[in-house]
Amino acid sequence: MDPRRILAVATIATLLSAAVVVGALRSPPAPATREAVGTGLAWPVSLALVADAGSSGLPRGSVLFSERLTGHVRAIVPGQPVLATLVNVTVATNGEQGLLGLALDPSFASRPWLYLYYTYTNGTTGLETNRVVRWWLGPNAPPGPPYEAVLLDGIPAGTNHNGGILGFAPDGTLFVTTGDTGVPGNAQDNASLSGKVLRMNPDGSVPAGNPIPGSLVYTLGHRNVFGLAFHPVTGTPFVSENGPDRNDEVNVLAPGRNYGWPIGTGPLGDPRFVDPILTYPSVIAPTGLAFYTVDPSFEWRNDLFLGDWNRGNLHRILLVGPDFRAVAGDTLVDSVGPNGILDVEDGRDGYLYYSTGDAIYRVMKSIETPDERILILGAPVAVWLLLAVASGFFTAFLLFVVREERRPPSPPQAPPPAPPPG
Known about the structure:
Elements: H1 3-25, E1 32-39, E2 44-49, E3 63-67, E4 72-76, E5 84-88, E6 99-104, E7 113-121, E8 128-136, E9 148-156, E10 166-168, E11 174-177, E12 196-200, E13 217-220, E14 225-230, E15 237-241, E16 248-252, E17 278-280, E18 286-291, E19 304-308, E20 313-320, E21 326-335, E22 344-346, E23 352-355, E24 359-365, E25 375-376, E26 379-380, H2 381-406
Antiparallel strand pairs: 1-24, 2-3, 3-4, 4-5, 6-7, 7-8, 8-9, 10-11, 11-12, 12-13, 14-15, 15-16, 16-17, 18-19, 19-20, 20-21, 22-23, 23-24, 25-26
Helix pairs in contact: 1-2
């Protein structure tokens, strides 16, 4: 047989075999193991977890969540089958309004303040307005303040784009996201609280380090920020932002900077504006953000997780670089489909928690699933090692066949002598 034909056939056979092996052994993108924490809920749009028991009377592991349409703050307490109602506020619920944001004081065990962002109808103006308040959940109100204290009032409200996400930075300041309330021009006006990310002290006062003296405005040019998280190493705030009909974004906040709305969305390449680190050209309606901080295997540690409403996917975003601002990967680790994801939080107990329109779940990386960072061209390293060994044996066999084909034939042997006549 022609050696060139042997080589061609063998090469095709090797490639087909490799494709079959890689296809059979390819690892899925880091799926997670999911379990329900609470079901049959009423729009748990924001949630928070109690890290340590304290004067609030809530045990460690309690999950607090806000019901957008009822104004209730409720708790799922470990070992108790009945939901506990902690607080109720009267809310306006036109369009996307309601009880939107919830956060716990960083020292909740000793200072059990609960922070809320909600829409209400102002009795004086008759207008729907957003406000930030805090509630004392301890057994006795501290000297002076009442159980509820209004920290910031007069945030414009609209049928859509109310923002409303609360989160504490590592320095103890409170960040508040607001939407443009359907009036895009307000996002570029520092005199308006709409379309901004605000930064305040826990008592509502203006921190000394804010970019505009005497102002709560930290960044401007936002359409509707619905996710907020702080990097566990650098402390830098990250936000998710909803685009109009394209270009949903993940942004890194820098004090005093402008994020472009309504001039444009996505990477504008304009030095006046900060470009997103990640853009989704097709609208997914990004929602909650959280950094995962506890993982004995370090596979998820310090990675950013994003929920999306339109598709119900939980994204894992791998950040790299000295300041963790470059995106090296975006994979899906869980999905609830049309239910949609509202909030995502790090439980600091080995689980990520997220909420949908009627449930709260927690997820953990599947132990048997290899981390996708050890994949090369889509296949685990072990597969490629196996193929390399097989390729070595096959090459040796091929060389043997070719050598045998090229060996000259042995000369014919002389016939044996005829036997003597008898």
